[in-house]
Amino acid sequence: MTQAVTEDDIARVFRSEHGRAVSVLVGTFGDIDIAEEAVQDAFVAAAQRWPETGLPASPAGWIITTARNRAIDRLRRDATRNDRYAQAALIYAEDEWVEEGPVRDDRLRLIFTCCHPALGAAAQVALTLRLLGGLTTTEIARAFLVPEATMAQRITRAKGKIRAAKIPYRVPRDADLPDRMHGVLAVLYLIFNEGYTASSGERLVREDLCTEAIRLGRVLAELMPDEPEVWGLLALMLLNESRRATRTGPAGDLLPLADQDRQLWNQALIDEGHDIVRKCLRRNQPGPYQIQAAIAAVHSDAPAAAATDWSQIVALYDQLIAMQPTPVVALNRAVAVAEVSGPAVGLELLAELDLDRYYPFHAVRAELLLRLHRTTEAARAYEAAIANTDNEAEQGYLRGRLATIHESPPPS
């Protein structure tokens, strides 16, 4: 008897295989638009057929084969209408094409090709998240803290520039790899972050994206072993991943860092992350990812939340904000400063930030206001935080915190 295939089953295959399928099809046809459209067509076909036929033995193979066949059929139709672009793509696909070069992993190769210097940094990251991570425009917009319409235009313009400028999709030469590195690291970090705290949906974590980001991070570290920031990012992801199992309760509710059972943290990942951080320190070539990894290492050193060395974390954030003076870094620094100097000082630092669309800003502000017994303001801040996240686990936690304000008697 064929096992029933649900929408959730198809969505799971999409999350895990979309990036791989697009990567393979870009290598086949040499064109992102053709690859993405073909993969989308294949998943539409899967949604129609799999509920009746059951899940194929190799869902990834089914998607890639179906996508390739759909693309070739479309190109053949277009080629008969003297569409020279379709004719060229068809020839490209039908040749036995094997590309040699330093990057041999399909998905990592797609990241490098999207991170072409002709595209702006934000466009590089957004396009790769769309193609490799299979993230929706809404999810990417939230990662960038911009309106969805703005992000849609950015992705469309990036694709248009690729087509107009005839940017080649090929493996970069060894000499070109360092220039592409910063965009690639940003992509991996955002893929991991979207997996670590999903911007929407019922679940807090998307394990598939975390796993894929770490896998690609390891491949990149093998490819560029002398780049300390590559290792810094890998250490950061490993140390954050070590806490994944404790970030939610039995019902899927969010557990903040202070409430997590540290005995259940993955010690093997912590040890590996610490080992990488120590090696980075010996190199003495600090960068933003290495410093963030060092901050994560300090957190993982503490046997309990109360034992956290917040003074050391503030010192590390002072270094980080000098290199990367962004509002989000300033927000995280304010959290650490509040632990050392008190909530009033933390609130003063938050007042300098413009992060109205960023839910953690409002959540942090609410917690600091609550410590100062300014409950009415704290309630309004929690309401703003709830309004700025679509993740149900985060919303549930924030509503719980808001409920405690309404249920607690006013301070005497």
UniProtKB/TrEMBL annotation:
Keyword NADP: no
Domain of life: Bacteria
GO BP, one annotated term: DNA-templated transcription initiation
Domain (DUF6596) ranges: 180-279
GO MF term set: DNA binding; sigma factor activity
Key words of the record: DNA-binding, Sigma factor, Transcription, Transcription regulation
Pfam families xref list: DUF6596 (PF20239), Sigma70_r2 (PF04542), Sigma70_r4_2 (PF08281)
Domain RNA polymerase sigma factor 70 region 4 type: 111-161
Record domain RNA polymerase sigma-70 region: where: 14-79
InterPro entries: DUF6596, RNA_pol_sigma-70_dom, RNA_pol_sigma70_r2, RNA_pol_sigma70_r4_t2, RNA_pol_sigma_r2, RNA_pol_sigma_r3/r4-like, WH-like_DNA-bd_sf
Family membership: Belongs to the sigma-70 factor family. ECF subfamily.
PANTHER family recorded: BLL6612 PROTEIN, BLL6612 PROTEIN-RELATED
Protein name according to UniProt: RNA polymerase sigma factor
Organism of derivation: Antrihabitans stalactiti
